[in-house]
Amino acid sequence: MHIRFTKMQGAGNDFVVLDETRARLGLNAAQYRFLANRHFGVGADQILTVRPSPAPGLDFEYVIHNADGGEVEHCGNGARCFVRYVRDKGLTYKTTVRVKVQLGEIELTMNPDGRVTVDMGVPIFDWERVPFNPMGLISDQANGWPVFDLNLGVQGMAPSMARVGVVSMGNPHAVQRVEDVDTFPVLVQGPLIENHPAFPNRVNAGFMQIVSRKQIKLRVFERGVGETLACGTGACAAVVLGIRQGWLDNRVDVLAPGGVLTIEWAAQADSPVLMTGPATSVFEGEIDLPDTLS
């Protein structure tokens, strides 16, 4: 199968974008993995697919596949690239579009400075909806909100624990505060948290260093991908949990390895999280996808 694609990135989180507004490509999980492969395919953290509006009041449908080929609920950095793509390709001339994602709808706005603001929706703290099963975990309170100790087994000579806050931003996140994110063993703890049995659908693991009430540094080990240069939903999750625990103000700059994202949350029960950041087209190309892959 011969297909066209666009390579994009948002704060270093990179994507292959596919246009299915005219017809479905019908790719399978192995073909998504091939596209994401940095040695044999194009190379990307996720594959983003643009589909036509599925219902009145919506402009498009937005579908995301991770590098492991699995479809996922949401990707914030991808959402910013999505709106730049549909405008650059002339699929819409609106500055604000509303799109369907797996578990709901989101609104995306192109700003005059070229950055994109995404209404990421209201954070989800209902454990069943995250989903998260805290049964048997040691819990505590931080500013009146629950945090949980995850047993990660033995590392070196001692048991390893991670104290995390849990939230869904349309996909599940477990975030812990660390003293120095640059030296923290993210690549060791990341996969252990991702696959912890308390998260039936696995989880994105965030590692947050608080610089000030208005700034954090963040690394994220993404479910089905590994560590990425930036994670939009992970940035939202970290700021939301930092605000709830009394550490952060309502507007925070998140310093990810790939760039800066600005996150805003009013901390009310029905308040959506707003994320603003860059979205850039890198190159366009064509590729032959093998019909038989495993």
Description:
The protein has 294 residues and is mainly β. 15% of the residues lie in helices and 43% in strands. The chain has four helices and 19 strands. The chain has a 19-stranded mixed β-sheet that branches. β13 (204-212) and β14 (215-222) form a beta hairpin. The two termini are 16 Å apart.
Layout of secondary structure:
Elements (H helix, E strand, L loop, with lengths): L1 E9 L2 E7 L9 H8 L9 E7 L7 E7 L4 E2 L3 H13 L7 E6 L2 E7 L5 E4 L18 E5 L2 E11 L2 E11 L3 E6 L8 H9 L9 E9 L2 E8 L3 E3 L3 H13 L6 E6 L2 E6 L9 E4 L2 E9 L6
Parallel strand pairs: 2-3, 4-6, 12-13, 14-16
Antiparallel strand pairs: 1-2, 1-19, 3-4, 4-5, 6-7, 7-8, 8-18, 9-10, 10-11, 11-12, 13-14, 14-15, 16-17, 17-18
Query: Which structural class do the helices and strands define?
Result: mainly beta
Please give the count of helices. Answer: 4
Strand residue content: 35-45%
- Let me know the average pLDDT: 94
Largest sheet: 19 strands, mixed
**What series of H and E elements makes up the topology?**
EEHEEEHEEEEEEEHEEEHEEEE
Distance between the termini: 16 Å
Helical coverage, percent range = 10-25%
* Total number of strands: 19
The radius of gyration computed from the alpha-carbon positions, rounded to a whole number of angstroms, is 19 Å
Broad shape = globular
**Which regions contain 5 or more consecutive residues with pLDDT less than 50?**
none
